[in-house]
Predict the structure.
Amino acid sequence: MEFYDDKATAHPNGKFEVDDATCQDRKKHDLTFEPNFKVLTKKLD
């Protein structure tokens, strides 16, 4: 998990990113979270 404090307009407080996370469907996804860990995106890898 990596934190990006880039202050982008879409994510002014930064965001966390997880690459290649294995989810319940047993497939790998890239995940993006807000600093309070609310899911922003879930993309099939």
Observations:
- Strands lie at 2-4, 15-22, 28-33, 39-44.
- The mean pLDDT is 89.
- The CA atoms of residues 22 and 28 lie 5 Å apart.
